[in-house]
Design brief:
With about 160 residues, the protein is mainly beta. The chain has one domain: Sandwich (Jelly Rolls). A six-stranded antiparallel sheet has the order 1-2-3-10-5-8. It is about 10% helix and about 40% strand. About 30% of the residues are buried. The longest helix has 17 residues, at about 5-20.
């Protein structure tokens, strides 16, 4: 992908946040795997859809954006995404530890980003801090007929 195209893609993704949740599939915040017991701390992420738009020059694909928020010490379950999903993740605040497939686990700071190829296993996705919250913007290029976007791995 050319630098200019990547810049436009990232600009579109950031603009997706400005559109607000009224433009996204689901239109509600969901805690994935949140604890059920009363009084237990929630050490899981919260996923908030912020945008969904068909890509006019790529038939059968949409751009979907979600903000993933992690309280201090929170983590996601090991997961994959919809089979066609190509994902760019951009850390908005704090620090996120991530490991995709057999690659090394790496901590990404606010302003840094990473990619997930279609079919990749996201082995580690967690707040790198036990004291501060963290969040990221995940932008999916995906077949909009594929749901759900995130599929937890079975143990």
């Amino acid at each position: 992908m050319r630098i200019r195209s990547l810049t436009h893609f990232i600009g579109a993704a950031v603009a997706a946040i400005a559109l607000g949740p009224g433009h996204a599939r689901g239109q509600q915040t969901a805690a994935i795997g949140a604890s059920e017991g009363a009084g237990e701390p929630d050490l899981h992420e919260t996923v908030t859809p912020v945008s969904e738009r068909a890509i006019p020059n790529v038939p059968g694909r949409s751009m979907m954006a979600v903000v993933v928020s992690y309280p201090p010490g929170a983590k996601s379950a090991v997961h994959r995404h919809a089979p066609s999903a190509f994902i760019y993740a951009h850390v908005l605040s704090g620090a996120i530890r991530s490991q995709v497939d057999d690659g090394p686990a790496k901590v990404y700071q606010a302003g840094e980003g990473f990619y997930e190829e279609p079919g990749a296993q996201h082995r580690v996705s967690e707040n790198a801090s036990t004291d501060e919250p963290a969040s990221l913007l995940a932008v999916f290029i995906v077949d909009p007929k594929e749901t759900p976007l995130t599929i937890p791995e079975r143990k």
